[in-house]
Design goal:
Helix content: 40-55%
Order of helices and strands: HHEEHE
Largest sheet: 3 strands, antiparallel
Structural class: alpha+beta
Number of helices: 3
Radius of gyration: 15 Å
Length: 85
């Protein structure tokens, strides 16, 4: 992968992450408790199992390194750095 392609991928991933955050309510309604593959502000595939998602992407000829993969949940992670000190 060239430097230009890497920069393009990073920009697209950042844009897709912003889209994911903005569309969270919609995504929870449709994809709750599923892994989703996102590219170009669109859900390409979804599955309850990560391997299942990767298989669906492979069947479509989509390189999994070119998509943002997120798990849609109602839970919020709370990180405490005090536990590691």
């Amino acid at each position: 992968m060239t430097d230009s392609e890497m920069v393009q991928l990073l920009v697209q991933t950042s844009q897709d992450l912003d889209w994911y955050k903005k569309k969270m309510d919609f995504l929870k309604e449709k994809y709750l408790h599923k892994f989703i593959a996102i590219a170009n502000a669109s859900v390409l595939e979804a599955d309850e199992d990560l391997d299942g998602l990767f298989n669906k992407l492979q069947q479509k000829g989509i390189d999994r390194s070119s998509v943002l993969v997120k798990f849609v949940t109602n839970l919020r992670a709370i990180l405490s750095f005090d536990a590691y000190e």
